[in-house]
Fold this sequence. Notes:
- By secondary structure, the chain is α/β, with parallel strands linked by helices.
- It has twelve helices and eight strands.
- The protein has an eight-stranded mixed β-sheet with strand order 3-2-1-4-5-6-7-8, sandwiched between helices.
Amino acid sequence: MQIIAVIGAGTMGNGIAHTFAQCGFKVQLIDINDVSLNKGLDTIAKNLDRMVIKEKITVAEKSQTLNNISTFIRLEEGVKNADLVVEAATENIDLKLKIFKQLDEICSDDTILSTNTSSISITQIAATTSRPNKVIGMHFMNPVPIMKLVEVIRGYSTSDDVTNSVMELSKSIGKIPVEVNDYPGFVANRILMPMLNESIETLYNGVAGVEEIDTVMKLGMAHPMGPLQLADFIGLDVCLSILNVMYDGFKNPKYAPCPLLVNMVRAGKLGVKSGEGFYDYSKSKKAEKVSAQFLK
């Protein structure tokens, strides 16, 4: 594989594009407008600058990485000649089904179609195409250039050849791929999200405060980041979406989102991305707790 098309220049998409480009692949980054693409490229450039400062890469390697990335606002042009497409659009099932239906119509028969979904069924996505054997999940972790794990999710019809190709490709960009089967939440979020949800329930029930809950998990369980801070980092809207997918898929009350999480998302308190979640990110400090009104 030489040409990688990445759909979406947001947090995950620009991280995926950055990683492939830094490893020498030609990347075709696609989004709906130039504003989104330029924002994504700016993020990549800033992250590369940090790597230069830390002497992890040279200035020449930074330039080569950026030169490996081309941008497109038309899907048809962006996926042209791609060996692999990585869809990293918003975690919305209707949007993803629409994108994969289009990809199936315009991509070469040999192109592997992958999705960075963190919870949505690969089998369901693949069923919208005429090539379900060539559809697979590649769930990267955020921040993509740093985190080593890639969950490689096989749909019901994903072929062994495609799975093996994606596993080897993941290794070639310095990742450690783990093959899992297609069930709601896969492995990472099936285990992580109930823990985050229970942490929110603990806050909601008044057992302890935000900092106290996070401190217990950091000092007592050796977690590098407390669960409420991690939820802020992931995005509370993303956490809610994943929990809803698992609740719908398993029909098990243990996956039902905490009312506090639902209310915070409705209020636009999404975590780091919105400037406020369980902590206040609008200032230089991170210790401001969520407003009491959301605990009702």
